[in-house]
Amino acid sequence: MDNRAEVSAFLKSRRAKITPEQAGMPVYGQRRVPGLRRGEVAMLAGMSVEYYTRLERGNLTGVSDSVLDALAQALRLDDTERDHLYALARAANTSGARVRRRPKKAIVRPSVLRIVEALHDQPAYVRNNRMDILAANPLARALFSEVFEAEPVNTCRFVFLDPRATRLFPDWERVARDGVGVLRVEAANNPYDRELSNLIGELSTRSDAFRTMWGAHDVHVFTEGTKRFHHPAVGEMELVHESLALPGEQGLSITVYSADPGTPAADALKLLASWAASQNRDAATSEADTEH
Q: For residue range 223-256, what is the model confidence (pLDDT) as tens digits?
């Protein structure tokens, strides 16, 4: 496929992030560009300036793994960025007939649903790489109660389009940038995913913040970390999260939140569980009254 603009913007953005000092190169005179010059990247990667210029113009057709590795090393790419570069190269060297097939609709297996539901004291959900939440246990629905008010349930759409997101996520900018980075990775891996394209188009049109972050060409993959919440019912809590890819289910993963025993966050999770139970009781009572 023709992804030259994407490739070019990614390489330029990575080159702009590296200073000559970081690359161990001497600095002479006044520099007119941020980061490294093209010639400096070419020298670090062991290739001619002409060849690197071709790459930075977006032409990855026929590029070997050894060239990609040299380029990744010269640009000091981390593992996620390196994988992204390889995904861009695969897309550039794959015929349209092969990649235009629409992705299969993700279906969460019953066995996976049972695992999620069995985690009674830990918020857990299944999501795809478009950040759609496809299944969740009651505690996750309580933790992300505001996110679940809209259909389809998509955390990126909530983060950028719902004003309550900055309250729910005290570290909103980090959460937002991570989400954009996930979408950037997915766009390289599945360039013909229409639902993904529609989501990116919607967020670009409706959110200045998304449009700015998207233009940075940063990439991200969720594995583990901590996230702070300010829940409207239980207040502040800082939870540890782990994301585990589901084997055999391309693009699906389970995310589980937890807290160390005896910590304020653990107490907050217990309070959240009580709040969720009361909400469910109220909903059941209201439904029963309506039926009668």
A: 999 999 999 999 999 999 999 999 877 789 999 9
pTM of the model: 0.89
Q: How many residues does the chain have?
A: 292
Collect all residues with Cβ–Cβ distance below 8 Å to 216 and sequence separation of at least 6. Answer: 13, 177, 180
> CB of 209 within 8 A of CB of 157?
no
Q: What is the DSSP string of 83-150?
A: HHHHHHHHHHTS-HHHH-SPPPPP---HHHHHHHHH-TTS-EEEE-TT-BEEEE-HHHHHHTTTGGGS
Cβ neighbours around 107 below 10 Å, total: 10
pLDDT lower than 70: segments of the chain: 1, 95-105, 282-292
Instruction: Give Cα 180 to chain centroid, integer Å.
Output: 5
| Other beta carbons within 10 Å of 195 | 15
Q: How many CB atoms lie within 10 A of CB 182?
A: 21
Q: How far apart are CA 194 and CA 102, in angstroms?
A: 8
45: Cβ contacts below 8 Å, ≥ 6 apart:
52, 67, 70, 71, 73, 74
Q: What are the φ and ψ backbone dihedral angles of 148, each rounded to 5 degrees?
A: -80, 0
How many C-beta atoms lie closer than 10 Å to residue 196's C-beta?
Answer: 21
CA within 13 Å, CB half, 106: 21
The beta-strand segments (E) located in the chain are: 124-127, 133-136, 224-231, 235-245, 253-258
22, 289, 290 from 278: Cα distances, Å: 55, 16, 18
The dihedrals phi and psi of 137, each to the nearest 5 degrees, come to -85, 170
Kindly report the number of other CB atoms within 10 A of residue 111's CB atom: 7
* CB neighbours of residue 229 within 10 Å: 23
